[in-house]
């Protein structure tokens, strides 16, 4: 049933929101050789975040605005300064850890990997973790919003109790005002740094997160039990998007609502282990090698 739902969602989005768009190669095709290297990491200090939850919310049978929550990050967040590059992704492909990119996308270490789906991003994170010995993973939607800082845009929209559809129209009009026609995968730095020193966040590459799409019924205290659909994941960029997990190009179908992302890419969070855990892991590897 999940596969059927994903196909239905992809076809509906293709018919209703966007048609296929030709994609030009980034640069001329070149071979990439090398080994996995540690990406540049930015440390985002602990802090607060006013965060509007992702998903659909219903109160008394009507569409409701998503709850706005005050969140506290008590530990630093270590996230990649740039998105994963197309050349770094190709190293994973050559090593058998990732599926090849589509449509003749060329490889460059200074440009993001685009046309990747959620499963591609997960595969790369697993491969990089094995190669480097650190644990890399996709950020949650809340973590991405925290890292984006002032570039995270609240996607709340007022709800008309008499006509809930106005909320979707308002959101669509707001998203349509943005220029999403530029799909060029630019060299890193094109969209500048945010206040944390993170490059190109909320530019024209939407980034996969680990967060699943949810639909919740909420009462007056904004408490509810959500229905979770992990066949659709949240991608963050100039606006929040809900995208079917196997879609590589949302402009050709697969966006659940709103205007589709111009490009789909990703950046990863690195889990930081304590000094004790790190030493313990190293001793464990040495002991295994000797025995």
Please describe the topology of this protein:
Elements: H1 2-16, E1 41-44, E2 47-52, E3 56-59, E4 62-64, E5 68-73, E6 77-80, H2 86-94, H3 118-132, E7 135-137, H4 141-148, H5 165-176, E8 206-217, E9 227-236, E10 240-244, E11 255-257, E12 264-265, E13 269-271, H6 275-290
Parallel strand pairs: 3-8, 8-12
Antiparallel strand pairs: 1-6, 2-5, 3-4, 7-13, 8-9, 9-10, 10-11
Helix count? 6
Largest sheet: 7 strands, mixed
Low-confidence stretches: 1-32, 275-283
The helix/strand class is alpha+beta
CATH class reads Alpha Beta
Number of strands: 13
Assign an overall shape.
Answer: globular
The sequence of SSEs as H and E is HEEEEEEHHEHHEEEEEEH
Strand content: 15-25%
Task: Describe this protein's structure.
- The chain is of the alpha+beta class and 291 residues long.
- The protein has one domain (2-286): paralog of FGE (formylglycine-generating enzyme).
- 26% of the residues lie in helices and 22% in strands.
- The protein has 6 helices and 13 strands.
- The protein has helices at 2-16, 86-94, 118-132, 141-148, 165-176, 275-290; strands spanning 41-44, 47-52, 56-59, 62-64, 68-73, 77-80, 135-137, 206-217, 227-236, 240-244, 255-257, 264-265, 269-271.
- Strands 3, 4, 8, 9, 10, 11 and 12 form a 7-stranded mixed sheet that branches.
- A hairpin with a 3-residue loop joins strand 9 and strand 10.
- The radius of gyration is 20 Å and the shape is globular.
- Mean pLDDT is 78; it is low at 1-32 and 275-283.
